[in-house]
Every structure is written in C-alpha cells, then in structure tokens.
Amino acid sequence: MSAFDAYLASFDGEPGYLNWAAFGPLSPSVREEVFADADLLASGRPSSLALVAERVGQAQDLIAQMLGADAADVTLQPSSTHGLMHALYGLSGSVIAGGAEFPSVSLTLERAAAASRGSLAPRWLAPADGRITPDAVAEALDADVSALVLSHVDFRTGYRADLAALRELIGPDRLLIVDAVQSFGVVDADYSAADVVVGHGYKWLRAGRGSGFAWFSPRARERIAPLLSGITGSSSAGLPVDDLPAPSPTAQAYTVSGPDTLAAGRLAIGLRDVCDAGVAAIEARLAEQVDAVIEIADRHGVPVVSPRERGRRAGIVSLLPDEPARLAAALANAGLVVTARGSSIRVAPHAGTDAATSAMLDEALQGYGTAR
Q1: What is the sign of the dihedral through the CA atoms of 51, 52, 53 and 55?
Q2: Residues 245 and 253 sit within 8 Å (Cβ to Cβ)
Q3: What is the pLDDT of residue 238?
Q4: C-alpha to C-alpha distance for 330 and 339, rounded to whole angstroms
C-alpha cells in the first residue's frame, strides 16, 4: 500500500461527515501517538518529558518544509488567532481586510486598531461577491497602506485568493498576512508570496485544538513590533528572573509562553501524515470530492455559490437552497454533518470522504428536491 493509499484508508469515521471546514476528527495516528505521549508525561521523568518536548521541533521542521521556509522562523501557537494577534497588534498604518472575513481576521484587526490608539487603522473591503481579488484590493490601495491581511480560502464560499497576484499588486514594501487555516495541508500553494502565514491543525490536518502555528518572514520581523512577547519571547537565554530582557531577535519574539507539548505532538503527527501522502496528491483527490458534491447539487437543482474552477477553490462547497432550514433538517435527518449558517449550507468533504457519504448526500438532496 502506498503512503497516499494508507492516508486515505486512515479516514475511519462513520459515513456522513462533511464538515471538515469546521472540525477534523482526529486521525488514528494522532490518537495513537497522543496516548503514548500522555503516558510519557505521566511518568514525570526528565527523560520522558524531554522526549515529548521534541515534538515542538518536529512540528516546526514539518511546517517549514511545507512552507519552503526556515524552521527557526516558525512558532507554535495555541491557535491561528494568537498568531494573527502577534502580527496585527505590532503593526501601524492602514491595513486592508475584507469586512466579511472570518472573525479571527476581522475582529482581531479591529481590536488591534483600538489598542493602537490611532496608529493602526483598518481599511475594510466590501466587494459584492465577498472575494478578495487584486481588483478589490487595488481600489483601497494608497501610500498609507502597510499591510493586507486575508484568508487564503474564504470560510463561507471556499474561494481561494491568488496570493501571487496580490503580492505583485501590493509590492515589496507592504506586508501580506495570510490565514491559511482552510488551505494548509490540502492546497499545494506557494506561500513564499506571504510575509506571515498562520494556520491551525484542528481542521484539515486532523490534529485537534491547540495546534496552531505562525510563520514570520525576516521582512515581517523587521516591521512587526513584538508587543505581545512573553517569557519565551525574550532574548534571555534562561528564565528572565530579576531582569527585563528585550524581545528575542528571532521569530520566537512572537510567543507568550512555552507550547503545549501534547498539542505539538498532535500537530507533528498530523503534518507527518500529510507530508508522507503528499499535499499535491491530497489536493487532487479533494478536488475530485468537491467536483462530486457540485455535480450532486447541480443534478438536484440546488444552487452552488462556490467557485467551480479547481484553481480557485479548496474543500468548501457552499449551497444556497430556496429553503435552507428545511434542507439543513433533511441533511441532519439523513445522518450528514454539515454547517448550516443563515441562508447557506456549507458542505466540506476531505480527500478520504467515502462513496457511502456521497451516496447519502445524493439521496438527501434528491428527497429535498422531490418535496419542493
């Protein structure tokens, strides 16, 4: 069995789960390793604690490998929002963002601006389709703009932003800050266009909560003040007792305290599984799964508002039914797990989604269409 086939076989949950954009059930390998790490921590022996602590470096190395970056520039965070806080609270000038962004972006930017007392100002975009395109950004761009912050993949529709085009538009003198929660590990992207990339392992990486991370490029570190730097972010070689050291000159300045080693272990294992399978292969299989969901929706007359072009999407299909509450109930009654929010239904398969789940979706949408 190839590594990719083994990866697909590891999706061992019951049929019906189509909510990977909200939460990724833990993979078998993550479950196995976290119990082993917990047993080591239970001993209290320094050697056992040190073994589990090695997970931090393993996770940093794998993230760096996937980003094509230096592991020293990678930090582990309790969440992607924590990484965005480090990035946004340390900025000044005008920062462009979409007003319909996930709150990790929009609310964090708003709070950072309030805390800055006038030195940081959000510049909100409101494109009709909600997509952060180069054309939408160009309309808001001027000399006061210091950064653009956006989700690589929109949580509502699955639209995938063109990072290379946005980088070319804003130029080298502005920062590009990217929330990659909905793309990291399932989109074979070139993240070198970005200056900061944040992510989290609890969705597509199947690593559980607490497994966030953030990468800060050298250019980002030159321009983002480490205002939230804590004990682990200081330049002190040891515990800074009876001393007030300056922030570290490295990316570790953007940390507050020591990482949760159990969370680091879950993240490391989830990343290892993805690297072994290959992100490109995962993306290709996920594209097939999304094609299948769109085809089922089209066949039963349920409007799709997500992009259809493979290069402009990831793993999210947003449906806009005439009767969203009734469709949500029909899907739940059929044993399908999706996200129903407002007038839309978000369906999010993964590479390992099985044929039984697709058949359940097909049958549920058929029943919904027949009853209309």
Answers
A1: positive
A2: no
A3: 75
A4: 13
Q: Tens of pLDDT along 200-247?
A: 999 999 999 999 999 999 999 999 999 999 999 988 777 787 788 899
Q: How far is it, in rounded angstroms, from Cα 308 to Cα 304?
A: 9
Residue with token string 């003040």: 225
Would you state the structure tokens that stand for residue 195, as one six-digit string?
Answer: 């200056």
Beta-strand pair 317-319/344-347:
antiparallel
User: Residue 97: beta bridge partners?
Assistant: 124
CB 147 within 8 A of CB 295: no
In the chain, the percentage of residues whose pLDDT exceeds 70 is: 99
- For 239, residues 6+ apart whose C-beta sits below 8 A from its C-beta are 231
Residues 6+ apart with CB under 8 A from 188: 279, 280, 283
Number of other residues whose CB lies within 10 A of the CB of residue 358 = 18
Lookup: tokens for 340: 């129903």
Q: Taking a C-beta distance cutoff of 8 angstroms, is the pair 346, 339 a contact? A: yes
CB 216, CB 75: distance < 8 Å? yes
Helix (H) or strand (E) holding 216: strand 212-216
The label of the residue with tokens 């030159």 reads 222
Give the tokens for residue 101: 């962004």
pLDDT at residue 1 in the model: 81
CA distance to 18, 128, 150, 200, 268, per residue, from 324 (Å)? 17, 21, 28, 29, 38
What H or E segment, with its residue span, contains residue 31?
A: helix 28-43
What is the C-alpha end-to-end distance of the chain, expressed in Å? 46
What does DSSP say about strands 339-341 and 317-319: parallel, antiparallel, or unpaired? unpaired
∠ CA 337-370-334, nearest 5°, is 20
Name the token pair of 135.
Answer: 């054309």
**Reported pTM:** 0.96
Amino acid symbol at 71: A
Give me 69's structure tokens. 């970056």
pLDDT tops 70 at residue 324:
yes
